[in-house]
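Hi all, posting the design record for the shared folder.

TITLE: backbone redesign
STEP: 1 of 1
STRUCTURE INPUT:
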């Protein structure tokens, strides 16, 4: 369980329950691959590192097993779930279908303030590229997309997607590390330009490209990280 020593301990937020804190820390470490797919994790070690009792950690394990990030195996321990590409595609599709509508609406209703906020966020993304901080870039990237929902007064929809998005984010994290980070920021810049110009057609074209890139990149990522992905059993066809 050597990778548990790489656990990033986040600062606990004010009024955050111990259970929610444990969930947030574990989710962060799984999505950002500090806890790697297939790795065994221990309640006692996590409890010690987060300075929590075992009860909230056990509750966090159970919650994350329901969302598919952990796999609890009775009598054998708990592992970080391997990346299931079926779940990744479901998350990507849901995000694409909804965010496409968000971008379409924002292209008609955006304000000057919205554009300033988006460009400020893009500047933060460029700073991440300069420091080669892929994990922080992913966080700021997620904030960029959250802003799109907020400007359309659809933040609750964004929060609804957030739980499903974690599967997509694990692949995106690998993608950002291995692929060109400039590509992501250029997409955001092009999208913001189109929204500012109220060019609905161009906005949809960019978001379509932006949220389908990962489909083309997955084959490469599977070759680079074969142990990270769920191996699907081939179906056998009965002969008569």
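Okay, here is what came back for every position:
SEQUENCE:
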């Amino acid at each position: 369980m050597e990778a548990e020593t790489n656990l990033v301990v986040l600062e606990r937020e004010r009024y955050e329950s111990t259970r929610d804190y444990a969930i947030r820390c574990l989710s962060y470490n799984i999505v950002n691959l500090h806890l790697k797919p297939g790795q065994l994790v221990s309640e006692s070690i996590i409890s010690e590192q987060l300075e929590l009792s075992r009860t909230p950690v056990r509750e966090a394990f159970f919650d994350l097993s329901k969302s598919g990030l952990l796999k609890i195996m009775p009598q054998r321990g708990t592992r970080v779930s391997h990346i299931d590409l079926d779940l990744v595609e479901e998350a990507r599709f849901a995000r694409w279908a909804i965010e496409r509508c968000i971008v379409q609406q924002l292209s008609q209703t955006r304000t000057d303030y919205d554009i300033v906020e988006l460009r400020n966020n893009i500047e933060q993304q460029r700073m991440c590229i300069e420091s080669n901080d892929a994990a922080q870039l992913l966080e700021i990237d997620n904030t960029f997309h959250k802003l799109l929902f907020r400007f359309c007064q659809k933040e609750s929809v964004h929060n609804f997607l957030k739980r499903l998005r974690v599967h997509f984010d694990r692949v995106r994290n690998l993608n950002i590390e291995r692929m060109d980070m400039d590509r992501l920021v250029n997409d955001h810049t092009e999208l913001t330009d189109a929204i500012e110009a109220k060019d609905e057609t161009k906005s949809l074209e960019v978001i379509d490209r932006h949220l389908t890139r990962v489909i083309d990149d997955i084959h490469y990522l599977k070759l680079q990280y074969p142990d990270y992905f769920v191996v699907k059993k081939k179906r056998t066809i009965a002969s008569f």
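COMMENT: Residues 59 and 81 are 17 Å apart (CA to CA).
Let me know if anyone wants the other runs.
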